[in-house]
Amino acid sequence: MVTAILRVMGLNQERQFQNYHRVLNRAKWSSRALSCVLLRLLILFFVSEDAPLVVGIDETIERRRGAKIAAKGIYRDPVRSSKEFFVKTSGLRWISMMLLTPIPWAQRVWALPFFTVLAPSERCNQQHRRRHKKLTDWGRQMIRQLRRWLPEHELVVVADSTYAVLELLACAARMIQPVTIVTRLRLDTALYDPAPVRQPGTNGRPRLKGARQPTLAQRLVDPAHHLAACHRGLVWRDDTHRRTGE
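Structure (tokenized):
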């Protein structure tokens, strides 16, 4: 990307143009530190002081082949696949965190990437005898890193249904400065109350969950369920008139 920008600027005819490749290839530099610097610059130019920081997290596939691409795997191609047609592709899976900010001249919200992590395939981790991390594990670490970078900022993370996992949501809620996560749930998702407090002298394994709550589909039909959900802290957007199942 750096050399492509220099070509657009007409600097590809410089005598020492190859040095720009060596800066990224041979020099010692930290991509995580660079991500922090880039994030602070984006906040300085696009986010007001009293506004919450809204970021998106999503994964993308970089199509790569070859014997020297060690972390490649076989994944579903989200561009060429559909509900009826499944297309696989070989490449690298990256998880990207992006600042969601409105651009005045574009009249829409843009996603500006500032933090990207490589998520190797399970086969690659097995070959290198490493513990495999799921997408939600990487996402949880990225959210914790974002909170360490901005300890006093109000953070809102927007993600798809892949990140609607209890471990990740609980981790974000239990931070000293909690992080709000906006994700998608199916209308038939099973929701439960917290596990009741274990009484002294009780036999058997401790309960992991409480009573079953009404599904989101039931809450949309019955206003009483909607009011009870608000008291529990469960809030969702009523845009399910299309009945798409999510």
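Residues 235-246 have pLDDT under 50 and may be disordered. DSSP finds eight helices and six strands in the chain.
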